[in-house]
Specification:
The complex is a heterodimer of chains A (about 800) and B (about 475). Helices cover about 30% and strands about 25% of the residues of chain A. Chain A is α+β, with helices and mostly antiparallel strands and about 800 residues long. The longest helix of chain A is centred in the C-terminal third of the chain and has 28 residues. The termini of chain A are far apart. In chain A, about 65% of the residues are buried. In chain B, α2 packs across α3 and α14 packs antiparallel against α15. The chains are: A alpha+beta (about 800), B alpha+beta (about 475).
Chain lengths: ~800, ~475
């Protein structure tokens, strides 16, 4: 059903004439836009613009802070701990209460329900009580007439804390067995014997930093009390159902008293999965105490101090391998810096274990995972969800092995790839059934001229005293599905109105990734109507209940199928109706191009809808989907946690300055697998955007906590995400040509997270350049590769 | 003419606002007072660009357009100007402006939160380039969008949109009408607590009469005292309107840059004299900050990590301080007495900066080391100016930032060079002298050890460049240059 556009390509650097097939951006003036209704063409497979694009560019797309405020709305600001670890002996809010506009101050004793958040592990207080566990932990709120009054007064609250020793370093936490959750070990075969018997052995350590989400829209929630102790909460959240549950839990109410709504987020990236729940609970508690609507919009500095980041990791590893660099034994200890509470650290650390293989067969292996407790923000979901921290380790190890043996790292990587007929079972006992790694990497190797460029770069480096270049190809194989199997379900509602227009609502949330657009495309095609007849409405717990987080790249897979099923139910009703009119079988009635076609008659969709309504046919339906085939034992971490894998590979070239450590990404070629694309423009946006975000994680985005545990990189002035100038001068993305081998919506594959990890090719290329500069086969580079870290890696 | 209210032109109409506190920001006025929520707050410190708006000002009978950050712009500072926000671009029938249409066509918005800011930066480019018949290149777009952060797209589609917008049917501003409206608003602005006189005499007399008033120019740092430190000011004295301070004067031996000249215009003048400074100039913050901030403000603020001062010190710039009925002039490095402290008396203001023009044979290089190339603050800034006579160092100026409590002149390193033959050994000795001269701190930007090491390494880079080495600085490296 999908009119796939063959190999969709975008290239940068060519200007308007350079990329003739990149969607529609090279239309000559006056050419008809392909956005004009084209009733005969299916919607899926087309590079349609984001459903909100026209509103977003005009400034009319509404985010939570833009919603017209209900009369009497107050504003809250958090009171933060200034100490990383200590006993909370008391608070004095008198000065704050006396300040202009202040309407109230609240602390833990003002919580009518459970003072502990309804997280999985139930270990995180709503407001700090008795003790504080990181700088920035929220102790209470000040509520005032205006935002600035609340923020000023929050700083005037005197907090009396008796400092205790703080654990700030993940290795120190591990040494003290300071954990938020018990360690987990995954083991196959006899790695000790394999290591001992290996022809070559290497061991090493690695440190990889965390990452701030830096969604452009900061955390925000707006809680409005309604009649009869009901609550309407506007939340910038990836998980409205969880926000609903947390708010009800904190207010001591049943879930049915709380409705949570999210039309869109200004970016999420995992940072608005659990973290949005905190904002909503705080706003609701303030609204509950003051009996007024309350909005909580965090200042960016507070957002940095309060909310969790991507988990920083530290590793110890030992590898045994043969002369070709093929691994024969591996032992890994991975230390996840979880911060002060569990949050999602269990599943994040699990996914790091799952992805320690990346694209490679590990053989005899042991992975020990430690979920370390430190006195920092509680680290949380972030695009990739532990996957990047697993993948970077194995890529680092294979790079080390190649340099140790004097082999091309790509040859070592290829020697270790999963096989198709054998060597095809993961360390968690899942058979890899859809492996396209070898043909995909081979195609990229050729199209990027990898071998020639390696030789060119080696010659160039020999003549270049200051600047050294590096090149690397790394692949990705990323497991798609929530590892918690029960999350892999979704619901949707499709309404056809009497004029033939269509509304779809589903449990997923829109954070910019184009989910609503793709789902509108799927629904349009299911009903055979033009894309323009379909609208998607705000995600709301009262419409589709108990929805899973929009996370794990699964938004389209789950909700798209649910919406497709809902639309199919309506279509079936209409087909049966038409079949009755025309005396044919319902299966003979088809829907396309805005028409309903039976063997006897062709009618307009609107006309059929109108008569069906008059004949009391149901024009709306729900749809429900649950992912098949998956199962998984969470004690042994074995089974089939993933429905399928998404694949890709990237070839990246970089340059480093050996005087300063400054570095640049010069050229990137990507070949990535999205199955049959539902929307090539949106998929391209996810690949490019994810990749650049990955470059940020591994180069300029450095989180620095000082020796008191204060996060010193607290805002964009000090925390540097990529800018337009960091876009590689050559940046070409191509889509792999095959559909998903599993039965997934439209033959597509999930795309949100996998491309992020392709940026590891940049980091490996930097290590290649470092090794070229050093000349001793070593590249002791950590992540992120800031200028300082690169310079340090060149010496010692 | 004095006005008690803030008056500006928007959508062709006069907007008039009374009783606005002096420290209220333009963004607060737009979102909270006028209910225009299209403009977003991303960071509240002028570093993300989500709040970008475009200001129009009558300059020499023409409209000059500048994209600025509304989150750190004091609302009173737009009195007498025209203001465009993202809501103001589409036609009455909803037809999108070319900047907006191009963003849609190129898939330049995903979450959409940074989008209004990008659209406004693009609108600034549209007015200043497309409408002037000048091409929009990818390089220009990268520079013009350097102050706008996007976390979703990876920027490629947005840069495409910048190029694409020229291909959309043209839409212009009715400049004659806006100019006529602005002419009605000309004059000083003095509301309760906010004084913005349009003459130097008036400015200096207000300075003398209100020594405690917070002096502001472009407010790109003071704005953060408001948004982040929550400071309120009883009185603000805005120097940017005094016409005498808005001039750049070209003299045979030097140029005089008035204290109210924007960083954009000031750096344009400096780059005109020394084209090698272009990339250094473009790395000063992002364009919206350069459009709002002033060279005088950067100098008076005296941050040890401000990038103008090392350049000016290396070039032997002098600073002119003004008071009612008098003035004094001193070398810039002597202006600073400690961390953010200077010799300015309570009745004085920075009037201008005098920058000597390049001498024949002058070798000048400005190096900025930061985590990110664009829109970042220096870990280390080093500017070296050298003149050689018969192979010996005849004149030397070295300015450094990020290595001490103030911007500084590296006198010991200069001493190690002056009169010496310019050889690799001399360069090595100068590098060691420079490393020994300062004891930088460790902070979130870099460690002390890195700063010290890089100081010396930059002298080595200067040596290599003085010997004709090319392609050894990634700041302005071209792929062809590397790949050749």
């Amino acid at each position: 059903m999908n009119a796939r556009e063959g190999e969709f390509t975008a290239a940068t650097g060519g200007g308007p004439a350079g990329a003739a097939d990149a969607g529609e951006r090279n239309l000559a003036p006056g050419t008809q836009s392909p956005h004009a209704p084209t009733a005969t063409q299916p919607a899926a497979g087309r590079a349609l613009p984001h459903e909100s694009a026209r509103a977003q560019v005009a400034g009319t797309a509404t985010y939570v802070d833009d919603i017209p405020e209900v009369r009497g709305t107050l504003h809250a600001a958090p009171i933060l701990s200034t100490v990383a670890h200590g006993l909370l002996r008391g608070v004095d809010a008198e000065a704050a209460r006396a300040m202009p506009g202040v309407r109230g101050v609240l602390f833990a004793e003002d919580i009518p329900g459970d003072p502990v958040l309804a997280t999985f592990v139930h270990d995180e207080p709503v407001f700090a009580r008795d003790k504080v566990e990181h700088v920035g932990q929220v102790i209470g709120l000040v509520v005032a007439d205006t935002v600035m009054q609340a923020r000023r007064a929050a700083r005037a609250v005197q907090v009396d804390i008796e400092p205790l020793p703080a654990v700030l370093d993940v290795r120190e936490a591990h040494a003290k067995q300071s954990y938020v959750l018990p360690p987990v070990t995954v083991r196959r075969g006899e790695p000790e014997q394999a290591l001992a018997a290996a022809r070559h052995q290497l061991q090493g350590q690695l440190e990889v930093g965390g990452q701030e989400h830096f969604y452009l829209e900061g955390q925000v929630a707006y809680a409005v009390p309604m009649e009869q102790d009901q609550w309407h909460v506007y939340s910038s959240t990836q998980h409205p159902a969880e926000v609903q549950h947390w708010v009800a839990h904190a207010l001591g109410l049943e879930n049915n008293a709380v409705t949570v709504e999210c039309r869109r987020m200004g970016g999420g990236f995992g940072g608005k999965e659990t973290q949005a729940g905190h904002m909503a609970v705080w706003a609701a508690l303030a609204a509950h105490k003051l009996r007024r609507p309350v909005k909580l919009r965090l200042d960016r500095d507070d957002d940095f101090l309060v909310t969790g980041k991507r988990h920083p990791f530290a590793y110890d590893w030992e590898a045994g391998f043969d002369d070709t660099g093929r691994l024969t034994g591996l032992k890994v200890a991975m230390l996840a810096n979880c911060g002060f509470s569990a949050d999602l650290s269990g599943p994040v650390a699990d996914r790091a274990i799952f992805h320690t293989d990346n694209a490679y067969y590990l053989g005899d292996v042991e992975i020990r995972s430690y979920r370390c407790k430190t006195n920092t923000q509680s680290h949380t979901a972030f695009r990739g969800f532990g996957g990047p921290q697993g993948v970077i380790l194995i890529e680092a190890i294979l790079g080390e092995i190649a340099r140790h043996l004097g082999l091309d790292p790509l040859d070592v990587r290829k020697a270790n790839l999963y096989g198709v007929e054998d060597r095809n079972v993961t360390h968690y006992r899942m058979k890899v059934e859809d492996n396209i790694l070898d043909p995909l990497i081979t195609q990229l190797e050729a199209s990027s001229r990898y071998r020639e460029r390696r030789a060119e770069i080696a010659r160039w480096n020999a003549k270049s005293p200051v600047i050294k270049r590096g090149l690397a190809i790394t692949p990705i194989k990323f497991g798609i599905s929530f590892t918690a199997t029960f999350f892999n379900q979704a619901g949707a509602l499709v309404h056809v109105f009497t004029d033939g227009s269509v509304q779809v609502n589903h449990g997923g949330t829109e954070m910019g990734q184009g989910l609503h657009t793709k789902i509108m495309q799927v629904v349009a095609d299911e009903l055979g109507v033009p894309f323009e007849r379909v609208r998607c409405t705000a995600t709301e717990t009262g419409k589709v209940p108990n929805a899973s987080a929009t996370a794990a790249s699964s938004g389209t897979d789950l909700n798209g199928r649910a919406a497709q099923f809902a639309a199919r139910n309506v279509r079936d009703n209409l087909a049966a109706f038409v079949a009755g009119l025309d005396g044919c079988g319902a299966g003979a009635v088809s829907f396309r191009g805005g028409q309903v076609i039976s063997p006897k008659t062709t009618r307009g969709f609107d006309e059929v809808v109108k008569s069906a309504y008059a004949n009391r046919i149901q024009l709306w339906s729900d749809g429900f989907y649950r992912t098949p085939k998956i199962h998984y034992d969470k004690v042994t971490l074995t089974g089939r946690p993933f429905y399928y894998f998404a694949y890709g590979a990237a070839c990246s070239e970089v340059a480093i300055d050996t005087l300063t450590g400054e570095n640049r990404v010069l050229a990137v070629d990507i070949l990535h697998d999205v199955g049959t694309s539902l929307n090539p423009a949106i998929d391209l946006g996810q690949i490019e955007g994810g990749f650049i975000q990955g470059i940020g994680w591994l180069t300029t985005e450095q989180l620095v906590w000082n020796d008191k545990g204060l996060l010193a990189t607290h805002a964009p002035s000090t925390y540097k995400i990529p800018t337009a100038g960091d876009l590689p001068p050559h940046f070409q993305v191509r889509l792999w040509h095959e559909g998903n081998r599993e039965d997934n919506v439209g033959g597509s594959k999930a795309v949100g997270e996998p491309p992020f990890m392709l940026a590891i090719s940049v980091w490996e290329a930097l290590r290649d350049a470092v090794a070229a500069a050093r000349g001793d086969g070593l590249a002791p580079l950590v992540a992120p590769a800031t200028a300082e870290n690169v310079l340090r890696s060149l010496h010692g | 003419m004095h006005s008690q209210t803030i008056r500006f032109i928007r959508r062709g109409e006069l907007v008039s606002l009374g009783n606005v506190p002096p420290a209220r920001t333009l963004l607060e006025v737009l979102r909270e007072d006028l209910g225009c929520t299209g403009t977003k707050e991303g960071c509240g410190e002028g570093d993300c660009g989500a709040c970008t708006v475009v200001l129009g000002e009558a300059v020499d009978g023409r409209l000059q357009y500048r994209a600025v950050n509304s989150c750190i712009k004091l609302a009173h500072s737009v009195d007498g100007l025209a203001v465009w926000t993202v809501e103001d671009l589409a036609g009455p029938d909803g037809t999108l402006h070319p900047a907006q249409e191009a963003m849609v066509r190129c898939h330049g918005s995903q979450c959409g939160f940074c989008t209004p800011g990008f659209v406004m930066s693009l609108f600034g480019v549209y007015q200043n380039y497309v409408c002037q018949g000048k091409p929009v290149t990818r390089e220009l777009a990268q520079s013009a969008l350097s102050g706008n952060l996007c976390r979703c797209t990876g920027y490629r589609p947005i840069l495409d949109a910048a190029v694409e917008m020229a291909a959309v049917p043209k839409v212009g501003v009715d400049e004659a009408k806006v100019l006529a409206q602005l002419a009605q608003l000309r004059g000083s602005h003095e509301a309760a607590g906010y004084m913005a006189p349009d003459s130097l005499d008036e400015l200096l007399s207000l300075r003398a009469a209100h020594p405690d008033a917070q002096v502001v120019a472009g407010c790109t740092d003071v704005g953060l005292w408001v948004t982040k430190q929550h400071r309120e000011f009883a009185q603000v004295l805005d120097v940017t309107r005094a016409r005498e301070l808005r001039r750049i004067e070209q003299h045979p031996s030097h140029i005089v840059i008035g204290a109210a000249v924007s960083l954009s215009d000031a750096y344009d003048a400096l780059v005109q004299d020394r084209p090698q400074l272009r990339s250094f100039a473009e790395r000063f913050a992002g364009l919206p900050v350069r459009n709002a901030g002033t060279l005088g403000g950067n100098v008076a603020n005296g941050s040890p990590i401000g990038d103008s001062m090392p350049l000016l010190i290396a070039r032997g710039a002098r600073i002119v301080l003004l008071r009612q009925g008098g003035q004094r002039e001193l070398p810039l490095e002597d202006f600073y007495t400690g961390y953010r402290r200077n010799v300015l008396a309570p009745d004085e203001l920075v009037g201008s900066v005098l920058v000597p023009r390049p001498q024949p044979g002058e070798l000048l290089r400005a190096y900025k080391i930061s985590k990110r190339f664009e829109d970042d603050i220096s870990a280390v800034c080093l500017v070296i100016r050298m003149e050689l006579e018969a192979g010996r160092v005849a004149s030397i100026g070295i300015g450094a930032g990020g290595v001490a409590a103030t911007p500084v002149r590296a006198r010991q390193a200069e001493a190690a060079l002056l009169g010496q033959p310019w050889t690799e050994d001399t360069a090595r000795a100068a590098a060691e002298a420079l490393r020994a001269e300062f004891q930088p701190i460790s902070d979130m930007r870099a460690s002390a050890a890195y700063r010290q090491q890089v100081l010396g390494n930059l002298v080595q880079r200067f040596w290599l460049e003085s010997q004709g080495a090319r392609g050894i600085n990634l700041e302005r490296i071209a792929i062809g240059e590397v790949a050749a």
